[in-house]
């Protein structure tokens, strides 16, 4: 069965510091991979996606993610976080038009 | 191009009542997905529909829950005889179904059962 693991429930980072959020997946083939961000009380906004090709993908708001097949990982990174990045981040996998399977999320707190 | 629309945004129901949640996909999108988010949890898939067809309902509870996406009008998620455990945020997503496989999410309906 397919699954997504986000091992960090909560991360606290200083404003201006770098960020890496971890995501590991289990799937029979190479899935489509996504990172979404959710602000409190809001819906989900797509940050970036990986389908195939270049394993380093760029997204909105200065985020990037790297797909590593050997590690079954798709970690999200940002070189310098801003206070407005505080939110919940979800990694998800899918294939074609099928349902998305989400991780449990990582809550990001930014301290001044 | 308007995004995915969901209404109502907040819904309060007493135990035993019915809840009807509506989702209008983005223009040109023919695929609709419903997900449920329980407090402090990630999103769980419920059902995937195309116009007039249920494609995958593997995440739907067997009783009290139903979904439809008619030829005209929004998709409806219906919960009969609600219980406290149904309290959650229900999100709808849509995709064009061809080419792009990204799902675009609506703002959600927050259901509270009292």
Summarize this structure as a short list of keywords or feature phrases.
heterodimer; A: 112 residues; mainly beta; six-stranded mixed β-sheet; four-stranded antiparallel β-sheet; 12 strands; B: 114 residues; seven-stranded mixed β-sheet; 11 strands; 0% helix
Task: Tell me briefly what this model is.
Helix content of chain A is 0%, strand content 52%. With 112 residues, chain A is mainly beta.
Please trace the helix and strand order of chain B, writing H or E for each element.
EEEEEEEEEEE
Task: Tell me the radius of gyration of chain A.
Answer: 13 Å
Low-confidence runs of chain B: none
Overall spatial form of chain B: globular
Largest sheet of chain A: 6 strands, mixed
- Residue share in β-strands of chain B: over 45%
User: Helical region count of chain B?
Assistant: 0
Q: How far is it from the N-terminal to the C-terminal residue of chain B, by CA? A: 37 Å
Task: Note the total helix count of chain A.
Answer: 0
The helical percent of chain B reads under 10%
Shape of chain A: globular
- What fraction of residues of chain A sit in β-strands? over 45%
Most extensive chain contact? A-B, 24 and 27 residues
Mean pLDDT of chain B, as a whole number?
Answer: 93
Sheet bearing the most strands of chain B, described?
A: 7 strands, mixed
